[in-house]
Design brief:
The chain is mostly beta strands and about 700 residues long. The chain is built from three helices and 50 strands. The protein is about 5% helix and about 50% strand. The protein is elongated, with a radius of gyration of 53 Å. The model is unreliable at about 1-20, about 370-435, about 615-635, about 635-650 and about 670-689 (pLDDT under 50).
């Protein structure tokens, strides 16, 4: 019985030995059963694992250098996927291994401040890898078309130390169809042995964008490490990348420009088709179907474009008009084939084509001459100083001031409500500014205002109403208009306006008309990329154009002596003062003097003044004293309040050498020659600043 057991055991060992003896394994001289997988320098943050820097034989294993302390101690983390993760502190030693685990060992050869030299060992084993060539049967050498054929030739090699036994292969090719297969799996796959696996595959048919597929050759095998008396079952997945690139065309649609940049009735729609793929597209057809409300007046919406090679681009256009306001959104469609006969259809993004009126107004304001301003003041005299005062036979002087005010030269500006035009609101308008930023319009007299109404859109504008709204302004003429305007058509009306008195003034033009309602174009319920939708729903658009209006109250005043007493036939000085008591500067003033029979000895009857700002009216009154006038160093200072009440000013009268000089806050503003021939002369001296 014992003999029989011995024979059975021998036969079993012989059987096992025969199985494992099919391949002769490589034997390590230093550490039998172990093989060095990595030998080199690494630093903190470096990871040693399978496939990094040519490392193999470390499947699912990794070593990460965490830190180096004082140039002596190395902290490392050793991990096996889904099994363990351990941290070690190691240093150079005389041990065979500084880390010794079941399937991994580490030896520290040297340590410096920033690096360590390590050798990593794993078991002797069978290791499979592959070199794969992919051949595409289409014009694109780097990809196949949908439904195209591709050939795979994979050379599998055992680069390990042991033979791979019980080798089994599973193909995981996903949606690819295997047309032919040529694979002969060896019964014993020894170290450094090779075999080929060749396939012809057909790509999936319904692929409409560039797609990279990953196919796998999945191997299962075992090996036996005789030195360690260790048998293991292993798996190895070899990936193969296959690119499928359909013929790719894109189409973009531009619904046409219907804003100010495209004044007129016509709208031109553009379609651009481009081949962005790597293969030629055949039988390319552009299909665009405008709604029945659009009349095509130029070009063709649908065209046969033939073939488009990679990179080709074709742009085609057609022109439409519409008699009524309408807004439509739709897509263009392109159908085509690839070289294998696959059919494709692509759509553009939806594009809006719109026919709308676009009413704008242009206001031109021109100033007009103002009536003459005449001021008359009497000059009273008596025949003799010794006679009683009498005003029965007065002499008089009339002064006439003609003020031509150039405060506004005339300016035209737009008032356009594109906000309402675009999105159904009137919150934002072209040219709409804060009132302070509007061109300042000064109505200091009669102004002629012309309002032009223009349809700058691409279809008829109906129910237009334009009217003026006035505040503090009198007006005469046409101040409203209503009707319809064709694209590009303009009407105008003109009226005359002038301030009616003090207080705020304003002239506002109100405009209303009918336009398409863009908010009624609802695309949420559209099903299908090729379905278009239109709207003809109208709404009222209204906007207003005001302006930064102000006004000037021309107040040209003349001051003259209340009374001048002279001897009969004696000469006297007459010094009228012209000053501006208004709200703005006045230009081009002409003063005429009429003495009504009195002789002018010196001076001019007509005086022109270029401009006269808002002035002050300083004055002094004194009785002429010959001794005072002859004194060369007489100075008198007076205080006065300016007309606007802004505060006091200091005025100095200096008499020197028979001349009166006037200073306001130290600045000389007037020099007058004075005479004082008789104590009986009483004169009121007025000085203009």
């Amino acid at each position: 019985m014992r003999w029989a057991e011995t024979i059975a055991t021998f036969l079993l060992l012989l059987s096992v030995s025969t199985v494992h003896a099919a391949c002769t394994g490589q034997v390590s001289d230093r550490y039998p059963g172990w093989e060095a997988r990595f030998n080199g320098s690494v630093g903190p943050g470096d990871v040693i694992t399978d496939g990094v820097n040519g490392t193999f034989g470390m499947k699912d294993l990794s070593i990460e250098v965490l830190r180096i302390l004082n140039g002596e101690i190395v902290n490392v983390r050793v991990a096996k996927k889904d099994v363990y993760e351990e941290d070690f502190s190691i240093t150079k030693s005389t041990k065979n291994f500084d880390i010794a685990l079941e399937d991994l060992r580490v030896k520290v050869l040297a340590v410096s401040a920033n690096a360590t030299n390590l050798t990593v060992y794993t078991h002797d084993q069978a290791i499979l890898n592959a070199t794969t060539n992919v051949t595409y049967d289409t014009s694109d050498q780097n990809a196949t078309l949908p439904g195209g054929e591709v050939e795979i030739e994979s050379l599998i090699r055992n680069i390990g130390e042991l033979g791979a036994e019980d080798l089994q292969l599973t193909e995981d090719f996903g949606d690819f169809q295997i047309l032919t297969r040529d694979v002969t799996i060896p019964s014993s796959f020894c170290s450094n042995s090779t075999f080929k696996a060749t396939y012809r595959l057909k790509a999936p048919q319904e692929v409409r964008r560039d797609t990279n597929y990953t196919l796998y050759l999945k191997f299962t095998y075992s090996d036996y490490n005789e030195q360690l008396d260790l048998a293991r079952t292993r798996t190895m997945d070899i990936p193969i990348i296959i690119s499928v690139r359909p013929a790719q065309l894109t189409v973009s649609k531009n619904g046409g420009n219907w804003t100010l940049l495209n004044a007129g009735r016509e709208v031109t729609i553009f379609n651009t088709v481009e081949n962005i793929g790597n293969t030629t597209a055949f039988n390319v057809n552009l299909i665009d179907t405008p709604p029945s409300d659009f009349e095509v007046v130029a070009g063709r919406p649908s065209l046969d474009l033939g073939r488009l090679d990679p990179g080709d681009k074709r742009t085609r256009s057609y022109t439409v008009i519409s008699s009524d306001p309408i807004a439509c959104t739709s897509s263009s469609k392109v159908t085509y084939e690839d070289e294998l006969g696959n059919n494709y259809t692509v759509y553009s993004e939806r594009a809006l084509t719109r026919f709308s009126p676009f009413v704008s107004i242009t206001k031109t304001i021109r100033d007009a001459p103002m009536a003459n301003l005449s001021y008359g003041y009497p000059i009273k005299t008596r025949r003799s100083m010794k006679s009683d005062y009498s005003d029965i036979e007065p002499a008089s002087v009339v002064f006439t001031a003609d003020a031509i005010m150039k405060t506004f030269e005339g300016e035209a500006y737009y008032a356009l409500c594109q906000g309402a035009f675009l999105n159904g609101t009137d919150e934002v308008c072209i040219g709409k500014k804060d009132k302070e930023e509007e061109p300042k319009v000064v109505l200091n007299r009669t102004a002629e205002i012309t309002v032009e109404i223009t349809n700058m859109g691409n279809t008829i504008a109906r129910d237009i109403t334009s009217y003026e709204r006035f505040t503090g302004v009198d007006h005469n003429g046409t101040t409203s208009w209503n009707g319809s305007l064709m694209p590009g058509e303009t009407v105008s009306y003109t009226y005359v306006a002038q301030p009616s008195g003090s207080g705020d003034i304003d002239i506002t033009t109100e405009v209303q008309y009918s336009d398409i309602d863009p908010l009624s174009l609802n695309e949420t319920d559209i099903e299908g990329a090729s379905v278009g939708v239109c709207t003809k729903k109208l709404r009222n658009v209204s906007f207003a154009s005001s302006g930064n209006f102000t006004y000037t109250r021309p107040d040209l005043r003349i001051e003259q002596p209340d009374e001048i007493k002279v001897y009969e036939d004696s000469p006297f000085d007459f010094l009228p003062i012209i000053y501006n008591n208004g709200t703005e500067k006045i230009y081009d003033i002409e003063v005429s003097l009429d003495f009504d029979g009195l002789a002018l000895i010196k001076g001019q009857r007509r005086k022109k003044i270029d401009d006269l700002g808002r002035g002050f009216r300083p004055f002094r009154e004194s009785t002429c004293n010959i001794g005072e006038w002859n004194n060369e160093n007489i100075t008198k200072t007076y205080r006065f309040t300016d007309i606007a009440g802004a505060g006091e000013k200091g005025i100095v009268y200096e008499i020197r050498d028979g001349k009166l000089r006037v200073y306001v806050d130290g600045e000389a503003v007037s020099v007058k020659e004075k005479k004082c021939e008789d104590e009986g002369l009483r004169i009121k001296h007025d000085v203009t600043l």
